[in-house]
Amino acid sequence: MDEKLEDKSNISLTDLFDVGQLQRVQNAFSDATKVASVITNPDGTPVTAPYRFCRLCKDVIRKTKKGRANCFYSDAVIGKQNPGGPIVQTCLSGGIWDAGASISVGGRHIGNFLMGQVKNELIAEDELIGYAREIGADEADFAQALQEVPRMSLDEFRDIAQLGFVIANELSNQAHQSLRQKRDIVALRKVEGALKESSERLQLLLDLNNAIVSNLEINALVKLIPARVRAVMQCDSVYLSMPDEGGRNFVVRGLDFPGSKGYLREGAVLEMFGSEAGRAFAEGTARRCGTEIKGQNPNVRRIIFGEGFRSECLIPVTAGEEKLGVLHLSDTRPDRFSLHDVGFLAQVAGQIAIALGNALKYQKLSDTRQRLADENSYLTREIQSGDRFKEIVGDSPELRKVLAHVSTVADTDMTVMINSETGTGKELIARTIHQLSARRDRMFVKLNCVAIPAGLLESELFGHEKGAFTGAHERKIGRFEVADGGTLFLDEIGDFPIELQPKLLRVLQEQEFERVGGTRPIRVNVRVISATNRNLEQMMREGQFRADLYYRLNVFPIHVPPLRQRQGDIPQLVEYFVGHYARKMNRPIRRIPPAVMEAMVRYEWPGNVRELQNLVQRAVILSPGDELVSPFAALRELEAMLPQPPPEERLVDVERSHILQVLKESGGILGGENGAAARLGIPRTTLIYKMRRLSIPRGIGGS
């Protein structure tokens, strides 16, 4: 634009452009932004018909002498030649915004792109109506017309004014080209093609602006943008190179390449180092490349040779200081991209940056909102799921040994595996490790691996993307993301499906995973504590549990002895539970008879602390006075229901023998009308639980 042209003193917009074309560009801008616009000569006379002008300006304000004078003054201000950017002007005492961008050729001002008639959202309408009195307009008519004027913030209007400035610059570029080619008919025909291209390019800018306004879904944007750019630029391939989580590689996003031979693929990971795209990204400058491959990394060379590319154009996409990626155009023709193309694509990249920046902020906000909702929901379920005792009760040597292990490992980030029988308080031990660790201020999240169907466990643990499977209507944050920075407790890890174990192993090794249906790796910082009552070493030998996963989980094993091996803790536990439930049920219990306490200490407690807790709760319910009633009548009822064992047999042995006998009778079948669970009169899940507790292997009793 700095080159001075001859015979340009009498050049006007109508000499260089078809008015109908200018009208279409102007109207498309107004339809996209909902802002009034008009293209004028430098003296303010309209070249196009004003579009979306509000009645307030033309029928109310301009009907008064003072109003017309103010409008003419505002038009004169925003109609000045200003190559540095749009001029934003306020009128109506700061209540209405207008803006203008100049159109020039060879340094000469030949027209204006004016836009505005937008209310300042910070100014009350009562203040604006007061302006009617200043100019002598009818206040009622003024107030009614004011309702039709759009309202927005200054930042929103500046973004729209910037788009108008980009359009004015593109018109200036085309005016420059048109003037140089005006001297003969052949040149004029070329102008028609250039104007057509300009119209398409301007339409692309408007389309991108519409995308900014209407689309906050990042995946939809990265698919839409390259397709629109390729259609306008008429090149072979367009995609966005976006940095991965680590910032060392590009991920190919939104690839639009109908003629691909397969070397360049959607989702491909390309190393930044040793690539022209990486240099454009790092330096923030556009690059045009030919077939030179010197200094390019092997992956890039393979793609260039394989696809037959002979020219590339690489435009960095940045929003302020944030680097979002690179707009990557490729073609099999040499010297396909001109400096003019680079300038236009830089404007496109500016619009893309706004769109992607807004979408990324929206995605982060949505993820944060969902994570907070998930945390709130999780904590609510935790509170409602039952009693939560914050203390580990007991002082036996066996328990002190366990707590010593807890103190040793808590301050580290090592994985811990808690091994014990059902009902010994594995979750309480895991919570204590978390509370003593540096992660105590973040989430403690638990997941019972046996309580969730295998088909849903992957989604529950790792989350899923919208549309990943039937019924996945929204993105879901998994337990690993909820626990980020904290601790994840995996109870019943022995029941973790073998087909999902490699994915769990990857998280333990790399602290990285993808959601179900996702391709973007998600990094987390989670400590994993697992628990089981099963013999995982035997399961490894039988091929039911991966050895590498076992060793990752079992870095620091903690064995919690069953209650029968730490009888010294029983009196304290009984007193603790009696006090807790007495307060909860408003019972005046102050004394535990020695005979009752002695019976509880002698009892084997096959269900461990959980059985003791439930039995004490039942005893408190049955105790109307200040003395605890013995709860062992319920146990005697259970014993009466079973075949009488020899005197030396324990209740747990009798129960095991009885289940084995029924399994033999059912041929090893657990469920169904004639299965062992139906014969025992208990649910199938209860039978499976009892078999695990009693170390009865699955499949026993079958032929």
Automatic annotation (TrEMBL):
Protein's UniProt keywords contain Aminoacyl-tRNA synthetase: no
Matching Pfam families: AAA_lid_14, GAF, HTH_8, PocR, Sigma54_activat
GO MF: ATP binding; sequence-specific DNA binding
Domain Sigma-54 factor interaction, chain residue ranges per copy: 392-621
SUPFAM superfamilies for this protein: GAF domain-like, Homeodomain-like, P-loop containing nucleoside triphosphate hydrolases
Keyword annotations: Activator, ATP-binding, DNA-binding, Nucleotide-binding, Transcription, Transcription regulation, Two-component regulatory system
InterPro entries, alphabetized: AAA+_ATPase, AAA_lid_NorR, GAF, GAF-like_dom_sf, Homeodomain-like_sf, HTH_Fis, P-loop_NTPase, PocR_dom
Keyword Cell membrane: no
Protein's GO biological process: phosphorelay signal transduction system; regulation of DNA-templated transcription
PANTHER family membership: DNA-BINDING TRANSCRIPTIONAL ACTIVATOR HYFR-RELATED, TRANSCRIPTIONAL REGULATORY PROTEIN
The protein's name in its UniProt record: Sigma-54 factor interaction domain-containing protein
